[in-house]
Amino acid sequence: MDTEAGPGSLAPAPATGRPIPEADPALVAGWRSRRGELVELLSQVRERLGGVAAVRLGPAAPTVLVTDPQAVQHVLARHPDRYVKRSHRARLLIGDGVLAATGAAWKRQRRLLQSQFTGTGMRRYEQRITRAARTTAARWEEYARTGQSLDVGREIRRFALDAIWRSLTGHPLDDGTERELAAVGAVATALPTLPADATDARDAVAADLARIDTVARHAVEAARSGAAGPDGPGLLHVLTDAAAEHPEYTDRLIRDELVTLLVAGHETTAITLTWLYLLLDRHPAAREQALAAGGEGSAERRQALQALVHETLRLYPSAWILPRHATEDDTLAGYAVEAGADLLVSPYLTHRDPELWPDPERFDPRRFTAADGRPTHPGAYYPFGIGPRACIGLQFALRESTVLLEHLLPAHIPVFSATPAGATYGITVRPDGPAAATLEPSRD
Question: Which of 398, 367, 399 is nearest to 383 (CA)?
Fold first, then answer.
């Protein structure tokens, strides 16, 4: 989809390399007969054939699987002009928002939003994130006092939605808005299973899309009227102000950017932190090690909490596959890639490569605090992507996660009565069920 070259882009190279090794058709046939998950097949392909391999998933030409760090960097960071996103899987939900935009429109939209998520921009939202975390901490105190059960995933999603809603509108999340915005998660979850026909797909989620559009319309109208929430103007005001100078920022595009930021600002964070709590339930020593690092509010404590998040993202990256399309012939890690080829770059599989990450299935946050704990190649760890199309909200997501852990982790320990049996591999990798728990006071 994207046609913007990165800073390291070079002149096109002819596809003069050797043929890409292709998976045995019997492997694919066996996978189909078992009705296995795509991740199962791709994992076997990587194990058998290496970091650049081909697999025939349908009647068309084979799809190229990319997990080798140098090849990942080549595709995502060095030559994004040769390997583009053709159609974002979430376009039905986010429309022409920055995640799905291309060409000059993408550059313009990215430039406008970029300043909001780095340096001074992030400081504007620090207190809003903290207020959302305090609200969640107070709610957890009440759960602990009464012994009431909670769904950890739902609770964390509520926090993340509150944090991004405050940042967008200046208002704390109210119960009514939360109920309506549950439609965002419903559509995001349904996307991988929707009909291939665009009209049929839209019809299947029409009611949820209508709920989202209604919330977005009211929020845009409030921002355009100049009314700021108790936290002051938000990101949405930046978008409505842009319309005065850039007529392309129509109500529809502002809606698309709003929904894009809602999805990117809360779904992935909520999923990551839910996985983290499930991992800490199985590895309680990791929690103790993080809380033993420095005192409350110290740089050491914050680094240890960030390591918990990074190790969770290693095992369960925000997007487990990143589809790309080759626009021209190229040579990738010595292999010939023909124009028109489809590629799947997989952070999930790169992060579980034993040649890069010793004992890769083990949850060990010290990988991100020890001097030699992780590979240094940028293509070895990329839970938010790398290159020009890397996630614009990386710093927001990490700050959101760290602030919530600073408030919750020292105070309570969830005792799970039921945990998900596995994972669901859609646009994200999410737990395949609820995570019911009660809260015990911390013994630290």
Answer: 398
H/E stretch holding 255 reads helix 251-262
Enter the pTM of the model: 0.91
147 — alpha (psi -120 to 50), left (phi > 0) or beta? Answer: left
Question: Please, are residues 262 and 184 in contact by the beta-carbon 8 Å criterion?
Answer: yes
The distance between the two most distant Cα atoms of the chain, rounded to a whole number of Å, is 68
CB–CB of 394/309 below 8 Å? no
- How does 160-192 read in b/e, with b if 16+ C-beta sit within 10 Å? bbbbbbbbbbbbbbeeebeebbbbbbbbbebbe
Tokens of 76: 């995502």
The Cα–Cα gap between 136 and 158 comes to 8
Residue with tokens 């420095």: 294
Distance CA 153, CA 406 (A): 18
Q: Give the whole-angstrom CA distance, residue 156 versus residue 175.
A: 15
For the record, the structure tokens of 378 come out as 């940028």
Backbone angles phi, psi at 218, to 5 degrees: -65, -40
Express each pLDDT in 190-222 by its tens digit: 888 889 888 999 999 999 999 999 999 999 999
Assign 247 to helix, strand or coil: coil
Q: What tens digit of pLDDT does each residue of 76-124 get?
A: 999 999 999 876 678 899 999 988 887 888 888 998 888 888 777 788 8
Distance CA(92)–CA(213), nearest Å, equals 12
Buried b (16+ CB within 10 A) or exposed e, 312-329: bbbbbbbbbbbbbbbbbb
Q: How far, in whole angstroms, is CA 97 from its chain's centroid?
A: 15
183-184-190 Cα angle (round to 5): 85
CA-atom Rg of the chain in angstroms: 22
pLDDT tens-digit profile of 284-328?
A: 999 999 999 988 999 999 999 999 999 999 999 988 999 999 999
Alpha carbons 16 and 125: distance in angstroms, whole number: 50
Chain center to CA of 267: 7
Q: Which domains does the chain possess?
A: 25-420 (1.10.630.10)
How many residues in total does the chain contain? Answer: 444
